């Protein structure tokens, strides 16, 4: 029955694979299949397209229209205004936990919705200056690696990345992007090929070694990989550098320096939290991402590996993340 549902609605996924071995996008398909299998009357979807490609989103929307035509009621929660305009009949806007408007989709537009969402005008198209190519930061030659199931996921990837350059890696979820990011940040061993950071061979270096070489990693799964949810903001901000001065001396942590660092990060990155002692698990997705950005970018890294950096963020937080990455580009970082 599950196979029939998957085929009917175009939700392809390997049903014999363990869920932890699936990508985030594939796991989302599993959640949708679970709901359809239960024959629900009301389907609540919270950011279902966060890590899907445009083609996958179009396929999902075709599925949703079929479900609505069959009489299903869908509550579609998203920060993506294009999706709101494309798929909804009616829109309710929440800001800081309060309803600020409920309007027919045909009676509004993206700028108006954005203004309602964040309480100010939002810049949809960011300007970036033309930069001269700088020194080579990263060189990847014929890189190969396996996924968690032992199947080849990266098959001979090669590219160069220069300072002041942002390289986009596109593709349908589950086609090696996740494994590539992990291979570049020391979280996954490659089976063949070489990786050079500057002129240094860093092939199969550990995550700590890549951290010590000032490589920043902004993972797609901010809760599972990017932070320790039970720890406070100030503790999460020093996860990569607590062993070093000024945050430690000998075997002891310097709490004053740690707190001052947290206060600076909260101010610089506009992290909305009661205090630096607040557990990260109590923050919104956007504020958790700001904690990750503050930690990863505080040392002015030479290389930034960012995977879906605006995943699940509202339009205001998305604007800020993009501005931060463009500022790093202007500084000369490779992303």
From TrEMBL:
Residues 138-334 form the ABC transporter domain. One of its GO terms (molecular function) is ATP hydrolysis activity. The keyword Mitochondrion does not apply. CDD domains: ABC_Carb_Monos_II. Keywords: ATP-binding, Nucleotide-binding. PROSITE patterns: ABC_TRANSPORTER_1, ABC_TRANSPORTER_2. This is ABC transporter domain-containing protein.
């Amino acid at each position: 029955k599950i196979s029939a549902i998957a085929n009917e609605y175009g939700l392809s996924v390997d049903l014999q694979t363990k869920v932890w071995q699936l990508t985030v996008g594939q796991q989302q398909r599993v959640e949708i299949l679970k709901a359809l299998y239960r024959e629900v009357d009301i389907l609540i979807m919270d950011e279902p397209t966060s890590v899907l490609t445009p083609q996958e989103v179009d396929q999902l929307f075709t599925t949703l229209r079929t479900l609505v035509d069959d009489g299903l009621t869908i509550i579609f929660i998203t920060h993506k205004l294009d999706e709101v305009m494309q798929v909804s009949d009616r829109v309710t806007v929440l800001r800081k936990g309060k309803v600020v408007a409920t309007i027919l989709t045909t009676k509004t537009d993206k700028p108006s919705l954005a203004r309602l969402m964040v309480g100010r005008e939002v810049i949809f198209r960011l300007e970036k200056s033309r930069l001269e190519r700088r020194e080579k930061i990263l060189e990847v030659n014929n890189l190969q690696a396996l996924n968690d199931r032992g199947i080849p996921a990266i098959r001979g990837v090669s590219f160069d990345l220069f300072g002041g350059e942002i390289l986009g890696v596109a593709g349908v979820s589950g086609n090696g992007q996740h494994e590539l990011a992990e291979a570049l940040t020391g979280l996954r061993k490659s089976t063949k090929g070489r990786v050079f950071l500057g002129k240094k061979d860093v092939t199969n270096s550990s995550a700590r070694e890549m951290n010590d070489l000032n490589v920043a990693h902004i993972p797609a799964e901010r809760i599972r990989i990017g932070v320790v949810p039970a720890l406070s903001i100030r503790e999460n901000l020093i996860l990569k550098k607590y062993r070093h001065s000024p945050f430690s001396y000998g075997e002891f942590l310097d709490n004053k320096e740690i707190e001052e660092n947290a206060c600076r990060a909260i101010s610089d990155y506009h992290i909305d939290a009661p205090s630096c002692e607040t557990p990260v698990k109590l923050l919104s997705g956007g504020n958790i991402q700001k904690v990750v950005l503050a930690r990863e970018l505080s040392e002015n890294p030479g290389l930034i590996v960012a995977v879906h950096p605006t995943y699940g963020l509202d339009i205001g937080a998305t604007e800020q993340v993009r501005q931060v990455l463009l500022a790093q580009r202007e500084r000369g970082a490779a992303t």
